[in-house]
Amino acid sequence: MIAVTLLGTGSPMPDPNRAGPATLVSAGDEHYLVDAGRSVMMRMAAAGVGAPNLSAVVLTHLHSDHITDLNDVITTRWVMTFEPTPLTIVGPVGTRAAVDHLLEFLGPDISYRIAHHDDLDHPPPVEVIEVADGPVDLPGAVTITCAPTDHRPVEPSIGYHFDHDGVAVVAAGDTVPCEGLDRLSAGADALVHTVIRKDVIEQIPVQRMRDTLDYHSSPAEAGQTAARAGVGTLVLTHYVPAIPPGDPGDDWRALAAAHFDGRVEIGDDLHRIEVTP
Ligand SMILES: [Zn+2]
């Protein structure tokens, strides 16, 4: 069984009820954090997983809403572990430079804490692995592969395939339908896909909103991808516009279900889905 927890189902628009994009993929005692959006550490605390428990952070792309709180993950991991415990961060080319800049940004804090705590004598140990297409070389019982997605002009962007004990879960990130995602998703048990309501956004007379139409998938497009891949469960997240509190998102579900006859999951932050073969 692989458990998928929607830590943050929001978007760049601040929302009191939905944290920024982040999803937890858990198998046994291994926990993989897919993206690290706004308030991710609060949602991880609510899910009962601390920064020391993370096996790795895997980034789909370097858009700000997906990495705003990566610095918080780095710092919290560092101060909550009592011997050097490297945090592995997997991401597309460019991730190493972004993390180096984050560590530079954290420089004053790092120096304060090392000066203040006798038992803290090292900066945050971080290992960055940049990937593009193929296996991701990590220890552990979960096998991870990746493939390029299409979120242009954001390049590169990556989707991830998690395999554990005969169960496969794919995290697509932000993408339009594409060959890489089809290849990654083929036969998976669950596909976690970010979506936006293009039918709603195209009615908004604000060009900056309409600009987002060409590099995201709609629920219908996510449903079509899920159907082509033959996945069992489609998990929608990253709701733009935000689904109001208490609204089960039936209209979103119907748009996907018009193209996909498997299970469609939509939820609030902390919605947890157990995926079995
Ligand atoms: Zn994006």
Could you list some keywords that capture this structure?
single chain; 277 residues; Metallo-beta-lactamase, Chain A; 10 helices; 27% helix; globular; binds zinc ion
Q: How do the strands of the widest beta sheet line up side by side?
A: 6-5-4-3-2-1-14
In oligomeric terms, what are we looking at? single chain
What number of domains?
1
What is the global morphology? Answer: globular
The number of E-state strands comes to: 14
Return the CATH class.
Alpha Beta
Written overview of the protein:
The chain is of the alpha/beta class and 277 residues long. It has a single domain, classed as Ribonuclease Z/Hydroxyacylglutathione hydrolase-like (Metallo-beta-lactamase, Chain A, 4-Layer Sandwich). Helix content is 27%, strand content 28%. It contains ten helices and 14 strands. It has helices at 40-46, 64-67, 70-79, 95-105, 107-116, 179-185, 198-201, 207-210, 219-229, 250-257, and strands at 2-8, 22-27, 30-34, 54-58, 87-91, 126-130, 134-136, 143-148, 158-164, 167-171, 190-196, 233-240, 263-265, 271-275. The strands form two sheets. It has a seven-stranded mixed sheet. A seven-stranded mixed sheet has the order 7-8-9-10-11-12-13. Strand 3 (30-34), helix 1 and strand 4 form a beta-alpha-beta unit. Helix 6 crosses helix 9. The longest helix has 11 residues, at 95-105. The chain starts with a strand and ends with a strand. Zinc ion (ZN) is lined by residues 61, 63, 151, 154, 174.
